Amino acid sequence: MKPEELKVGKVPESVLKRSVLKQIHTKRPEILLGAGVGEDCAAIKLAEDEVFVISTDPVTGTATDIGNLAIHITMNDLASAGAEPVGAMLTILLPEHACESDLKGIMGQMEAVCAEANVQIMGGHTEVTRAVNQPLVNVCGVGKAKAGKIVSTAGAEPGDDILVTKWIGLEGTSIIAKEKEQELASRYPMQLVKEAQGFDKYLSVLPEAATAMKSGVKAMHDVTEGGIFGALWELAESSGVGLEIDLKKIPVKQETIEICEYFGINPYGLISSGCMLMASSDGNTLARELEKNGIHAAIIGKAMAGNGRVLLKEEERRFLEPPKTDELYQVV
């Protein structure tokens, strides 16, 4: 039987209770007022020596696993500032002809990620609207950090080592492999396609952020839209430093290389949630600590005095350019 479509406008109270509120199980003691019928706000209490850290991000590039991606991306933003994620406020906009099962599926994905990270969904807004043609989710994340312990993108200094964790292109590779499964399966073994689809298991950077905070990290930036080239530019611009980056040292999975070659896109410009860019005055020690905790890490270059942002590949030298439209949008 075809599921009944939701009507345009705010979702009915019965749907809100059944497919939204009943999906929320993770609770935090800091949250005094959370999600409920008629509640438009949330309330949080922190200790005297703690500060709020807040981030907001939409997911617009894909509807595949949108709930999973939306929570991960915002939690990663908080982690990159050295904050512990506490809660999330959601805005879920569904297109006409969406069904309650679509909403329930998105909420289920979100709660699964929240449960793993011990994050409470505090509230938000859900409606069906003619303004979107696919589900759109925006997450406002709230975290906490000790006063004076915030880490910013702007903390890199000349002489610092530049590191990346895990591999570039993880998020984009996973999205493309899911949305273009049949096309890729006609070219590559299904095992490669399935492996690429599974890269979403690497999306959280909370573990590496926690390790880095104990190991003298000076700047962190999660690698999202614009890929590693975009993240490097933003780190350098924010910190007011130059860069010398060895392209051959940037870690990338073979599945990402194959899929990018097939679609004619650049893996260095592909959305890369799950990969964290870091600056440290002692990159070797930081890399060792990350590896001890099971997190692959590589030193890819150094921050330099001045404004030169140089990419090195053997004898070739070229300059990094400002971020461009993410390569993902050429494919999906």
Distance between the termini: 30 Å
H/E order of the elements? EHEEEHEHEEEHHHHEHEHEHEEE
The portion of residues assigned to helices is 25-40%
Q: Could you say which overall geometry the principal axes of the C-alpha atoms support?
A: globular
Give the overall average pLDDT: 95
Describe the 3D structure.
With 332 residues, the chain is an alpha+beta fold. 32% of the residues lie in helices and 26% in strands. It is built from 10 helices and 14 strands. It has helices spanning 13-20, 66-80, 100-117, 170-179, 181-185, 190-197, 206-213, 227-239, 254-263, 283-292; strands at 9-10, 31-33, 43-44, 50-59, 84-94, 120-128, 136-146, 161-165, 217-222, 242-246, 276-280, 297-304, 309-313, 316-319. The strands form 3 sheets. The chain has a 7-stranded mixed sheet with strand order 9-11-8-12-10-13-14, sandwiched between helices. A hairpin with a 2-residue loop joins strand 13 and strand 14 (316-319). It starts with 8 loop residues before the first strand and ends in a 13-residue tail after the last strand. The model has no long low-confidence stretch (mean pLDDT 95).
List keywords for this structure.
332 residues, alpha+beta, 5-stranded mixed beta sheet, 10 helices, 26% strand, globular
